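Q: What does the predicted 3D structure of Thiol:disulfide oxidoreductase look like?
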Amino acid sequence: MIDLYYWTTPNGHKITMFLEETGLEYKIIPVNISKGEQFSPDFLKIAPNNRIPAIVDHDPIDKGEPISIFESGAILHYLANKTGQFLSSDLRIRTETLQWLYWQMAGLGPMAGQNHHFSQYATEKIPYAIERYRNETNRLYGVLNKHLEDRVYIAGHYSIADMACYPWIVSHEKQGQNLEDFPNLYRWYELIKARPATIRAYEIAREINPSPTVHDEEARKILFGQTAKSLNKH
């Protein structure tokens, strides 16, 4: 059994997509980040960076004590190793998969995240910041679109690299991007969107959080106003 500490964000969706693909037994423990539940002492023992997702695997392959993992890329890598699925044992394919996983973690996710913040959530609209992150998101879309010219999925076959990237493309309209400008990316996006496991993962998200929007000032402060001092309060 895997405990999945989850909220309905792109990084959260990565893990439900993987778990639904593989059929691993898991239990969702919702962590409502708009209410500050990510700062609870019990959660911080598992995820010291106070971010979702995180997991606890109660049946690790070494048959030892339960193991906890935070950071969505690390979780995908761990689960792929555990199941032997969606991460090839072939050196070159495995390396390609992991480099695109890290590309998402270091580039697509952070840049699209800043795009979301300045265009959707910031109370003060700063044109330079909005344009900066919209343009960088556009560049990254172009990188992936170019890469997909001669392949169906990022590493040839469907892998954790695809699961990592897809949720960050879902909000393309909010990011100021038109997928029709990126035909290879658009084709890839539609293939993953139609996968039964993807459909199930997003249905789960809608059941847990039907209105995934920052509604009030208190939620805004919790999500966007934290500093190192904030952690000492919890």
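A (community wiki): The structure tokens above were generated from the sequence. The chain has a mean pLDDT of 93. The chain has two domains: 2-85+198-231, 91-194.
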